[in-house]
Description:
heterodimer; A: alpha/beta; Alkaline Phosphatase, subunit A; nine-stranded mixed beta sheet; two-stranded antiparallel sheet; 35% helix; B: alpha/beta; seven-stranded mixed beta sheet
Amino acid sequence: MKMEQQEKEFRLNxxxxxxxxxxxxxxxxxxxxxxxxxxxxxxxxxxxAMQLGVAQFAPKAKRIIYLFQNGAPSQLETFDxxxxxxxxxxxxxxxxxxxxxxxxxxxxxxxxxxLVGSTFNFAQHGQSxxxxxxxxxxxxxxADDLCFIKTMHTEAINHDPALTFFQTGAQQGNRPSxxxxxxxxxxxxxxxxxxxxxxxxxxxxxxxxxxxxxWTNGFLDSVHQGVVFSSGEDxxxxxxxxxxxxxxxxxxxxxxxxxxxxxxxxxxGDPEIQTRIKQYEMSYRMQSAVPELTDFSKxxxxxxxxxxxxxxxxxxxxxxxxxxxxxSESGVRFVQLYHQGWDTHGNLEGDMRMQAEDVDRASAALxxxxxxxxxxxxxxxxxxxxxxxxxxxxxxLTKESYGRDHHPKCFSLWMAGGGTKPGIVYGETDEFGYNxxxxxVSVHDFHATVLHLMGINHEQxxxxxxxxxxxxxxxxxxxxxxxxx
Amino acid sequence: xxxxKLHNQIIASLLMLxxxxxxxMAIVSLESIPGWTKQIGHLHPIxxxxxxxxxxxxxxxxxxxxxDESDENQLFILFLHYNALAATITALLGLLxxxxxxxxxxxLFNHKWLSIATALLSHLLIYLFHWSKSRRxxxxxxxxITSLIMMIGSHFGGSLTHGEGYLNFSNTKKVSxxxxxxxxxTKIYNDVVQTVLxxxxxxxxxxxxxxxxxxxxxxxxxxxxxxxxxxFVSGDLEKSLFIxxxxxxxxDKKHMPPKGKSQLTSxxxxxxxxxxxxxxxxTTKFHQxxxxxxxxxxxxxxxxxxxxxxxxxxxxxxxxxEDKIASLNSPFRRVMPLDIHSPALIxxxxxxxxxxxxxxxxxxxxxxxxxxxxxSTMPADDKTLEMLSGFENLEKLNLNGTAITGAAFKQLxxxxxxxxxxxxxxxxNYEAALLLAxxxxxxxxxxxxxxxxxxxxxxxxxxxxxxxWDIGYIxxxxxxxxxTPPSPTNTEKMILDPGENITLKHPLPGAQIRYTxxxxxxxxxxxxxxxxxxxxxxxxQINAVGTSIGWLTSNVSSFTYFLKGHKIDSATIINPPAEKxxxxxxxxxxxxxxxxxxxxxxxxxxxxxxxxxxxFHLSEGKIISKVILSLADNTGSYVFPPEKIxxxxxxxxxxxxxxxxxxxxxxKAQRNSSILPVTVDFTPGAYKYLEIEAINVxxxxxxxxxxxxxxxxxxDEVFFY
Lengths: 485, 721
């Protein structure tokens, strides 16, 4: 077929959306009415109950840095001190405690469930008297800036669904991620950077995968997708001009491309084309904004010491924490870190030591650094994994080593800054560290609370898709008032 | 002379028709007309501007023009016709609009009849103009009367859609109330239910304006209900319209509050239902509810969340116009409201190279509304501060990482509301900080990494205790941290051409690198001080450390470099490798691609069931005296050095003799994984075919968890010299 003919047919190929738009605009009076009474004349175009791009009420936090500890760090070796387990070390987990809780395929065939106490010592820290294990001396030193939640619980018992649930509010993986919702609801602060960025690092412990569905925009506009900053020479892939092309030629190329795109938008009317035009323009400006962010050579010597020398090695957790601070400071609404390696099914002691060594200093440094710049009150920092770990040993309990399986019924995380109550411990678990006895916090509650801190009512941030309105909290979630300052 | 006669006649007859229709519609009930005709009524708010403008224009025009049929007046007569037509059509549309919506009946009555009067009077004016040629005063008073009636009628119309008092100039605000904290005397109806009603419903259902005839301002009126039925039926939630309407889908036309108005939250809906279930009782107090009562928890939730989502501060200044805010926004300057209701604005600047003080100056038009300015990392200097003095409501100023020295801090005394100033990473010194102490409203100052010392901060804190002076975290001078080890700039390229350089780097600016090439371990004083790139003469293991004053010397990092050997024509793998570890076949052995010992899935070929055995063809006829196998050493993954390596050679496969062999040293305990180069020397010769066999460990040692099992051999590259 000749090109001309193809083009002709393409133009004749009118989509429903196209037809409605054109037909609507063609009728002068209707068009005017359409502008003024869009809802009455053309049916609802609004997918959400709130006005987008601005907080609904005075936000306590303007930005979020989420330090996701991928693989699920054990609550029993971090912040939930259970001396009873040390006393009952090796004894069988009472059935009255387990109450038929579903187990993973990794321990469901075990004949015995011997309780195992933490091999690490615990001590109380700060005015709040929060218990922190010896693995985390730096976090312990800022206990009075942290808000520990000991009673998180989730629905999933395996990594992928649990992680997806934490990120998107559903286990299946077809919904927008938290950062995407945030970008959709509040818009971008700095138009020269994506409003949602993702940083990845790998620890030395037993690792679990992370994948791009965790930072997906789901059914939201693709501008809300998380952008990964990688550790190589090109932190943002394909951002730099290819060899032999300078800024002028890139500008000229983009101008020409924008012209083509504008033409095809006129013909097809697909809103995704305009998204694309905007994205190209943002990438062009990112060429100026990104190099400054990823250049650590101008950081003060004391900053390097604060985060630890690893922060100069791209791709480490420490480097990502420092980069997260710089991105956040530059107006990136949601910086998502993932640090792999917390899946301590066996050899827990050694793995936990290595993991803690890699994250303790830098996590605490991030809080201190934000604080000394006067930014902690407007930045919410979250540290935690996707579920907890069992109070009984996975595999055979020996003198040398033990392991813990996945446990969804209680686990700990901490938040800091951004309007959370500093120096508190929220919620209580039983003496076995197995069940919650006071103030449970579900993942939906957690999401509702985070949105609340950002000035959004979680029930009003909705998007209509496939005939129904979706929320990050789906049909559940209550703001946890007890952690809000 | 042109008279537009035909034109005028057509309009006049049209007017007769339409006005007759208008009168009929005004009297007859329009409730039953089809929905689409009601929709046309939506054009009413647009068209109504025409008669308003026309009639207001009549006033000056009728003063100037004489009432005669002169040429210039012909156009005016035409205008009078159009005026009447516009007024009539507008009134018609208004009647349709009234049929579609439930408006306050009293307001509607006034608006309707005054507007109809306006239309009729406008029609009358056409005839009056001809008739009153000699009675000018009559003509002018008729115009004035028409204008007045139009204005009063419009006023009622404005009140209908924008709420009463919209056109009054007295400052009446929308009523809204906040929850009082829960106490023993908190009444469920008066203090909770009623508060939600006031905030979400009373705008349209009050004493004056009761849409659908429903008034929710007092309990008696609530019980009475509206036009369509009882709001509350005791014991029957389904029949209680009040519950029914709020439960409908947002898209349902009967859903309350209507789409576009502030919606009830699911908690509030739940509250109303729970309250209705309890017979919509007005006397119960909060503290009388059982601790486990769902109504109790829902009330707690609503009240607490409203208390915590209350704006932290309310401002008395008015909002800046949205157009103004929009015009100031660019990728390099963001102007944002604190939240959707707040008049307060935040300004933030981005991209150093795009910054200029002009960007601040341009914001003068919103100087009243700005409560926060963030200039962090911008090249703003002391001069910039002058521009800030006009921002009278500024509370928070972020100057982190700017070129500010603080010499001009006096300027900031004009900012009487300034509470917080961030000066981390600046050249601000003690003297400059003292200038800040004079700002009475100031609460916190951040001075980390500025020119203010530890001691001076203490001084400031004791002199001005009302201000929180924050110098940030001072690192413990006695704490020594271990540096990270150095690395080559290109960690991918471990196979070099003869003479090719190796470049080492350390991430900490100013750190020194020491290295060795003899296998020994360097430290802060031994080894070669790295000053420039260097080349190697053969297989070399580089051990390197990083050192710097104030830091502990790093761990040793090791890198094994290979030199390219003779060109191999082809390779064949004789014994098959394990299914999972085949890389890209025999090519992998001679493709100059190295693997890493931690990832055995890439570039490595692994053998376990059979020994590693491969043949290599060399046609060039070069003298060969040495082979180097690049193996993996990863005891944790059962990858051990081979038990024995045998090299055979000859002119082809059929004529081979053993040239040499080697028995590598076995590890005595678990060790870190690494690249293990193994060299086998043999009698030099111009061999065309060489065969190498590496026999894997047949029984792992006793100390290993896999004792007695077979070990693996992994090879990624073979070099001939």
